[in-house]
Design goal:
Blueprint lengths: L6 E6 L4 E3 L11 E7 L5 E8 L5 E3 L9 E3 L5 E3 L9 E7 L4 E11 L6 E3 L5 E2 L4 E11 L4 E6 L2 E2 L7 E9 L6 E9 L9 E10 L2 E6 L3 E2 L2 E2 L5 E6 L5 E2 L4 E7 L8 E4 L7 E3 L2 E4 L8 E7 L5 E6 L1 E2 L1 E6 L2 E6 L7 E6 L3 E7 L2 E2 L15 E9 L6 E22 L6 E10 L3 E6 L5 E2 L3 E2 L6 E8 L5 E8 L4 E8 L15 H39 L1
Parallel strand pairs: 1-9, 11-20, 22-29, 31-36
Antiparallel strand pairs: 2-7, 3-4, 3-8, 4-5, 6-7, 8-9, 10-12, 12-16, 13-14, 13-17, 15-16, 17-18, 17-19, 21-23, 23-26, 24-25, 24-27, 27-28, 30-32, 33-34, 33-35, 35-36, 36-37, 37-41, 38-39, 38-42, 40-41, 42-43
Protein name: CD166 antigen
InterPro entries: CD80_C2-set, Ig-like_dom, Ig-like_dom_sf, Ig-like_fold, Ig_sub, Ig_V-set, Surface_Rcpt/Adhesion_Mol
Pfam families: C2-set_2 (PF08205), Ig_2 (PF13895), Ig_3 (PF13927)
Length: 532
C-alpha cells in the first residue's frame, strides 16, 4: 500500500540499487539532497550535492557508509543491496524560492538456494506413518512457499497418510527467510520406485518463480506375501549323479534370509538360508520338495524326478568259449523312462542283438551293449563283452598239378584259435620245408602253400599246433610226371554240384541203355519161341 501510485525500483539482493531523481532541474538550483524516511516518518539525510561548487557530501549514516554514490544528475546509487534498503527514498532539489521532492520506493528480492531434501529416512515401511524428510530452501526474500511432489504430482495433505508442516524462519541480521517443510508419509508397496521431490515458489524482480530439488527414491520395506521354490540349475531333467540346489525366495522387501526346507521322508523342516544344496542325487531323491517362511506361514512346493538308467550285461568282461558251443547273451535295462538299446561289434553298429547257438570263429570280437535315456542329456550306459572263440587245429590238405606241368601246389588248409603254427615235412627224410607261403589269418582260418616238383612219389606232412592241441595230416603226392587234379585247391560247392550232376547224367544214360537192351532181348526171345 505504501508503494501504491509511487515510482518503485526493484533490486536484487547484493546488486547495486540505482534511483534516478525524477524531478526536472529548475533554474537557480542551489543543491540537491537525498533522504529516506524512518517508520515513524522522521527523515534521515544521506547525500548532498552542490550545484555551484560541484562537491558531494555523504552524511554519517552507518548503514550507508561507503555504499553511496550521487551523480551529477542527482541519480543515487547504493552498492550491495540489503533487505534493510527497502525504504521510501526522497530526492530533494532546492532553490532560493522553493523545495521540490519526489519519492521512490525500493523493493529488494533474494532468490533462495536450490531446495534439498535433508534428514532422509533410511527406508520406509508400509502401513506406517513416518518422517520421510525435510525440504529446506535457504536465504529467500521475500518468504517463499514449499510444495511436495511424488512422481511429478503434487502431494496434498491427507490425515494419517500425508502430513506436511511448513516453517519459515527469518535471519535477524540479514532479514532473509529459510523455509523448512517436513513430510510424514505412509507408503504402499507401489511406492518402491517412487520419486519424491519438493518445489519452492518465490518472488523475483520479474514476478513469481519456482525451483525444484533433486528427486529422491526411498527403499520401501514391505512384508512377504508369497513364497516361491525353484530348482537350480534350471534344467528340464535331472539324472543320478547331478548336483542340484533348491532356492526359496519371498517377494517381500527386504527378502527373507532364512527358510524351512521340507525334504521327502523328513517330517521336520530343515532351517537354512535361501538355498539348500544336494550333491550326487540318487533315484530315491525323487519326490515333492517344499519351503516355507520360518514361521510356517507361507509355503510353496515343487516335484523333482531323478532319472536313472541301469544296464546289466550277461556275460560281460572277457569270455572264452570253444567253437561250436552255445553262448546265451542278455542285456537288460531298468530306467525311469523309455530307453534305446543298441549293440556295437568292433566299432560297427549291429542291426540285431547277438545270438550264439553254435559259436564260430567269426563270432569272436569286442561287443558293446549301449543304451541312452531319451530326452535326458548325458544319461547313457554301456558294458562290454570280449568274446574269444577257441578251437583245436583242423587240417585239410589238397594238391594239384600246375598248368605248366612243371610243378605241383600242395595246400594245407588250417582252422583254429589261437592261430596254429604250421610246419611241413617230407616223410622218410623228415626234413622241414621252410619255403611255405601263408595267406592272411581271418576268422580263425588260413592256408599254408608249397610248390614242389618231385621226381618220385613222396609223402608230405602238415603239422598245425596251438596251445590246445597238435594236429598232423599227411598227403601222398605222385611224381611230377603223373598229373593230379583230384583235389583242386579252389573247389567250391557249385563245382561239386556240377560234377555230381554230370555223374548222375552218365549213370542214367548207362542204366537206360541196359534196360533197352534187356527189353529188346526179352522181345526177341518171345518171338523165337512163338515161331517154334
Amino acid at each position: 500500500p505504501l508503494a501504491l501510485g509511487l515510482y518503485t525500483v526493484n533490486a536484487v539482493y547484493g546488486d547495486t540499487i540505482t534511483m534516478p531523481c525524477r524531478l526536472e532541474v529548475p533554474d537557480g538550483l542551489m543543491f540537491g539532497k537525498w533522504k529516506y524516511e524512518m517508520p515513524n516518518g522522521s527523515p534521515v539525510f544521506i547525500a548532498f550535492r552542490s550545484s555551484t561548487k560541484k562537491n558531494v557530501q555523504y552524511d554519517d549514516v552507518p548503514d550507508y557508509k561507503d555504499r553511496l554514490s550521487l551523480s551529477e544528475n542527482y541519480t543515487l546509487s547504493i552498492k550491495n543491496a540489503r533487505i534493510s534498503d527497502e525504504k521510501r527514498f526522497v530526492c530533494m532539489l532546492v532553490t532560493e524560492d522553493d523545495v521540490s521532492e519526489e519519492p521512490t520506493i525500493v523493493k529488494v528480492f533474494k532468490q533462495p538456494s536450490q531446495p534439498e531434501i535433508l534428514h532422509q529416512a533410511d527406508f520406509l515401511e508400509t502401513e506406517k506413518l513416518q518422517m520421510l524428510g525435510e525440504c529446506v530452501a535457504r536465504d529467500s526474500y521475500p518468504e517463499g512457499n514449499v510444495t511436495w511432489y511424488k512422481n511429478g504430482r503434487i502431494l496434498q495433505p491427507v490425515e494419517g497418510v500425508v502430513v506436511i508442516n511448513l516453517q519459515k524462519i527469518v535471519n535477524k541480521s540479514t532479514g532473509l527467510f529459510t523455509m523448512t517443510s517436513s513430510l510424514q508419509y505412509m507408503p504402499t508397496k507401489e511406492d518402491a520406485n517412487a520419486k519424491f521431490s519438493c518445489i519452492v515458489t518465490y518472488y523475483g524482480p520479474s514476478g513469481q518463480k519456482t525451483m525444484q530439488s533433486e528427486p529422491v527414491v526411498f527403499d520401501v520395506h514391505y512384508p512377504t506375501e508369497k513364497v516361491t521354490i525353484q530348482v537350480l540349475p534350471r534344467s528340464s531333467t535331472i539324472k543320478e549323479g547331478d548336483n542340484i540346489t533348491l532356492k526359496c525366495s519371498g517377494n517381500g522387501n527386504p527378502p527373507p534370509q532364512e527358510f524351512l526346507f521340507y525334504i521327502p521322508g523328513e517330517t521336520e523342516g530343515i532351517r537354512s538360508s535361501d538355498t539348500y544344496s544336494m550333491t550326487d542325487v540318487r533315484r530315491n531323491a525323487t519326490g515333492e520338495y517344499k519351503c516355507s517362511l520360518t514361521d510356517k506361514s507361507m509355503m510353496d512346493s515343487t516335484t523333482i524326478t531323478v532319472h536313472y538308467l541301469d544296464l546289466q550285461l550277461t556275460p560281460s568282461g572277457e569270455v572264452t568259449k570253444q567253437i561250436g558251443e552255445a553262448l546265451p547273451v542278455s542285456c537288460t535295462i531298468s530306467s525311469s523312462r523309455n530307453a534305446t538299446v543298441f549293440w556295437i561289434k568292433d566299432n560297427t553298429r549291429m542291426q540285431t542283438s547277438p545270438s550264439f547257438s553254435s559259436l564260430q570263429y567269426q563270432d569272436a570280437g569286442n561287443y558293446i551293449c549301449a543304451t541312452t535315456l531319451q530326452e535326458v542329456e548325458g544319461l547313457q550306459k554301456r558294458k562290454t563283452l570280449k568274446l574269444i572263440v577257441e578251437g583245436k587245429p583242423q587240417i585239410k590238405m589238397t594238391k594239384k598239378t600246375n598248368t605248366n606241368k612243371m610243378s605241383k601246389t600242395i595246400v594245407c588248409h588250417v582252422e583254429g584259435f589261437p592261430k596254429p603254427a604250421v610246419q611241413w615235412t617230407v616223410t622218410g627224410s623228415g626234413s622241414i620245408i621252410n619255403k611255405a607261403k601263408e595267406t592272411k589269418y581271418v576268422n580263425g582260418k588260413f592256408s599254408s602253400k608249397i610248390v614242389i616238383a618231385p621226381e618220385e612219389n613222396v609223402t608230405l606232412t602238415c603239422i598245425a599246433e596251438n596251445q590246445l592241441e597238435r594236429t598232423v595230416t599227411s598227403l601222398n603226392v605222385s611224381a611230377i610226371s603223373i598229373p593230379e587234379y583230384d583235389e583242386p585247391e579252389d573247389r567250391n560247392d557249385d563245382n561239386s554240384e556240377k560234377v555230381n550232376d554230370q555223374a548222375k547224367l552218365i549213370v542214367g544214360i548207362v542204366v537206360g541203355l541196359l534196360l533197352a537192351a534187356l527189353v529188346a532181348g526179352v522181345v526177341y526171345w518171345l518171338y523165337v519161341k512163338k515161331s517154334k
